[in-house]
Amino acid sequence: MYEKQYVRSLCIDFAIRIVRLNKYLLEQKNEYVMSKQILRSGTSIGANISEAEMAQSTADFIAKMHIALKEANETKYWLELLQKTDYITIEQYDSMNKDLGRIIGIFVNVLKKTKAKGSI
Fold first, then answer.
1. pLDDT single digits (tens) 41-96
2. Distance of alpha carbon 31 from alpha carbon 45, whole angstroms
3. What is the C-alpha separation between 95 and 98, in angstroms, rounded?
4. I need a surface site. Which of 48, 72, 76, 99 has the fewest CB within 10 A?
5. Average model confidence (pLDDT) for the chain?
6. % pLDDT > 90, the chain
7. Three-state SS sequence of the chain
8. Is the confidence at residue 118, as pLDDT, over 80?
9. 93 with 80: CB under 8 angstroms?
10. 58: burial class by Cβ within 10 Å (0-12, 13-18, 19+)?
11. Distance between CA 2 and CA 61 in Å, rounded?
12. Residue 21 CA, distance from chain mean position
């Protein structure tokens, strides 16, 4: 299974990219609605992983991981919308979407293995 520190590091690095994207959208593009949405969902991914690390039970861990996965999926939506409305380039989108796809893939694998194993 994936090491906790590796997953945490991926989420923090992605959150930093989201914070920088938010700053870019506000300062360079004067975009104030989608930027807040993606900031909220994109930084929430790692926050939910942090909560999952301290889960009280397997069921609690699974619930927190599902929330992180849902936030990642929402972030994917906002990224796509920002690209399709020309607030970010296809290159910016592809780069961030690749990182997000890696995170989503890890979450799905962790959830599958945890459910199959029945414990954290």
1. 999 999 999 999 999 999 999 999 999 999 999 999 999 999 999 999 999 999 99
2. 22
3. 5
4. 99
5. 95
6. 93
7. CCCHHHHHHHHHHHHHHHHHHHHHHHHCCCCCCHHHHHHHHHHHHHHHHHHHHCCCCHHHHHHHHHHHHHHHHHHHHHHHHHHHCCCCCHHHHHHHHHHHHHHHHHHHHHHHHHHHHCCC
8. no
9. yes
10. middle
11. 15
12. 14
What was the pLDDT predicted at 117?
A: 87
Place of tokens 């009280």: 56
Task: Please give the structure tokens belonging to residue 63.
Answer: 């619930």
As a whole number of angstroms, the distance between CA 70 and CA 36 comes to 17
Residue 6 pLDDT: 94
- Chain centre distance of CA 102: 10
